[in-house]
Amino acid sequence: MAMVTKFIMVQGLMYLLTIRYLLFDLLGPYYAVTIIVIKFLAFILALDILNDLLKYFYRKRVNLRRDQHDNITLGLNNIYLLLVIGGCMVTVTAFFGLNPKELFTSLSIVAAAIAIISKEYISDIISGMFIAFSKDVAIDDLIKIGDHTGKIVDIGISKTALLNDDDDLIYVPNHKFFINEVVNYTKSPVRTTSLEFELELHRLTTLESLEQALTKSLDLYKEYLEPNSFNLKVVHVYKDYLHLKFQYILNVSDRGMEKVIRRKTLRRVVDFIREHGEALPTPDTN
Q: Which domains occur in the chain, in start order?
């Protein structure tokens, strides 16, 4: 219904533009401003209709619900927003009786200065377009970029929002996706979870006994774990202690369950280490 209303409004605005010269005497001094407003409204409504139609046919093709979004729908929204901003700029210059082409040509030096100052923001916008239409990352993917790890919940025009394990929203500038390495855990065929910790040598009996104890602590979650995927690695050997890494492979793609298992596993590791020696556990998901 909303689509039909928008279409009728566009048709009405276009009709007014076709008879605009007949409105000159009626509008008098407000003629120019009125025509500019009509053109702007017609442009915005037509753009909105086009955006809705593209997303409608795309959702229908990929069986996506109306309230769901993926990279393509977010990318279309970003393009729509850029075109709206461009339309607003042209409309503002038209209100002052300026030709946008001549204005930007005469202000080329100022425009160059503005481009230099805002180059990072422009880079974020361009990067956001590439991210939105790429297959490298997508909404709900679990990624690691720099020091941040989290699930992608939104790909904006200049920033991408991540939700970390503490339910904190982290906004990462889009250009960082191109200058930093991005690890996409969701795209990986193997979901390996690692828990790193340090253990004093004189507190350790054998590595085998430690591995068996940690493996046994996960019996409650064995239905979510790959059998025989447990592995205790020695990362570094120091004079008085070992840097160890305990790993296991998940057979589920449920992010919530993955967090529960990792949190419970970390607590079991901490409990074990408190009984057998001093340690500093640090979780890391690969």
A: 2-132 (no CATH), 137-184 (2.30.30.60), 191-285 (3.30.70.360)
